[in-house]
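FAQ

Q: What does a record look like?
A: Structure on top, sequence underneath. For example:
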């Protein structure tokens, strides 16, 4: 069994402006990575069969008491078997959809404005079974089923029942990935990060959620580039919403430094009519103080433009951060 974790704290400033009012906030947060502590292990069962497990909890190192509200949350916990057939894991796990998005986010899923490639990401699925095939000539496939956990009363539908499929190809510097995700009876939403962006919040009432993610990356050695396309549809009994976005990222290492940048644009349609247009950017710079300790700085902005009204309203969500991350 192995103990592992991340302690990450940075000074983060947040600015939210709609052209009339401006809200500012500052403080310490986990920025480059969510702080966590976990246990993982593998047991050789013989005949090429192995058992594995992960138990990982999110923590909030700047709080005095760790509760569910302050961050002592179940990030992922699963147990599974691995062999010549591939692997099967049971428990709370990352979604295949989120995995495709994360592979194209070369800055690394930081807690900062400017990356709209993850706005439709559900990140993790509880009560899930995930199967991954072995890799054949660079190709592999995955399937995931998430069982709704809500108690059924008089035949009522379960919440958050999920099915998803994924395809991956990795050969040297080239990587391609695709994932499709379908969720029934859910309250997930395209996250606007600031919680105020026009009709995005309305998507929280959706009953049906279908999401696609397609990514490609290539490592040239002197630089790595990546592309991600999002396409998501949400429906309930009163409306339908469609979200689409294109995202580009680049990462350039030089010595102990790594410079990173992302740009993205997207749009939301409600009932077939253009509703909100988005544009975003992120810039990041990290410095490896050692193999396990990294200093970082990030800036980013996401702009939400409401095109359903005249004149158009615009909200700007901006963040800056500087901090240190240590892994163990």
């Amino acid at each position: 069994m192995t103990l592992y974790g991340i302690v990450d704290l940075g000074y983060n400033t947040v600015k939210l402006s709609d052209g009339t009012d401006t809200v500012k906030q500052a403080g310490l947060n986990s920025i480059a990575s969510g702080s966590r502590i976990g246990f993982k292990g593998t047991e050789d069962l013989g005949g090429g069969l192995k058992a594995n497990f992960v138990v990982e909890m999110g923590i909030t190192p700047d709080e005095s008491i760790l509760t569910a509200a302050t961050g002592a949350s179940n990030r992922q916990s699963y147990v599974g078997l691995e062999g010549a057939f591939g692997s099967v894991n049971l428990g709370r796990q990352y979604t295949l959809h989120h995995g495709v998005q994360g592979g194209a986010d070369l800055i690394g899923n930081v807690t900062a404005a400017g990356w709209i490639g993850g706005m439709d990401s559900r990140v993790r699925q509880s009560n899930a079974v995930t199967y991954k095939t072995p890799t054949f000539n660079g190709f592999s496939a995955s399937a995931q089923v998430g069982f709704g956990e809500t108690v059924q009363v008089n035949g009522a539908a379960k919440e958050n029942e999920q099915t998803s499929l994924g395809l991956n190809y990795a050969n040297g510097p080239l990587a391609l990935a695709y994932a499709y995700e379908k969720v029934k009876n859910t309250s997930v939403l395209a996250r606007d990060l600031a919680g105020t962006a026009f009709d995005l919040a309305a998507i929280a009432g959706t009953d049906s959620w279908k999401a696609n993610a397609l990514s490609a990356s290539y490592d040239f050695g002197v630089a790595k580039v990546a592309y991600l396309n999002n396409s998501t549809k949400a429906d309930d009994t009163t409306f339908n919403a469609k979200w689409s976005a294109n995202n580009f990222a680049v990462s350039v290492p030089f010595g102990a430094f790594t410079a990173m940048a992302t740009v993205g644009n997207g749009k939301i349609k409600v009932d077939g009519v253009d509703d909100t247009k988005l544009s975003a950017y992120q810039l990041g710079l990290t410095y490896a103080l050692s193999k396990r300790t990294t200093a970082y700085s990030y800036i980013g902005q996401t702009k939400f433009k409401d095109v359903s009204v005249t004149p158009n309203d615009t909200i700007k969500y901006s963040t800056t951060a500087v901090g240190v991350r240590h892994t163990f």
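Q: Is there anything notable about this one?
A: Helices lie at 96-104.
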